[in-house]
Amino acid sequence: MSLQQPGGGFLPRTGAVEVDPLDRAESTALGLAGLAVASRLGSRVEGLEDGLARARRTLTQLQSQSGQFGVSRRPRRGVGVSAVACGVIGLCLVNEPADAAYLEAAGRALVFQAQMGTLPSGWVQAVAARGLAQLVE
Fold this sequence. Notes:
Blueprint: H1 21-40, H2 48-61, H3 77-94, H4 100-115, H5 123-136
Helix pairs in contact: 1-2, 1-3, 3-4, 3-5, 4-5
């Protein structure tokens, strides 16, 4: 909660003066997923539900028509896949009916990325697999 920006998003720890929108989207999606897990596990931290709502609102505002979250000036598939997979996980865990269209678009984007070929190894493959599994659950 302490890392959440006033508008609801999260910033990556890059040290850069200007943050790439894709990095901001990935951080916000990861933040949403983390807050959703905390809520699901019964955390009663003050401000959790408000923080969760602000993160949801911020992330869905970052979604493009393709379903991806954030648009980068330079293509980085791994960060894009991580952002959409974390977004899928977070939106699934929140399970808000109003997010159905956002979740469907993000799910399509994640499936499309998975079908494009081998994903970067490590974190990206793991979070993409979890995101795809979350869609099935």
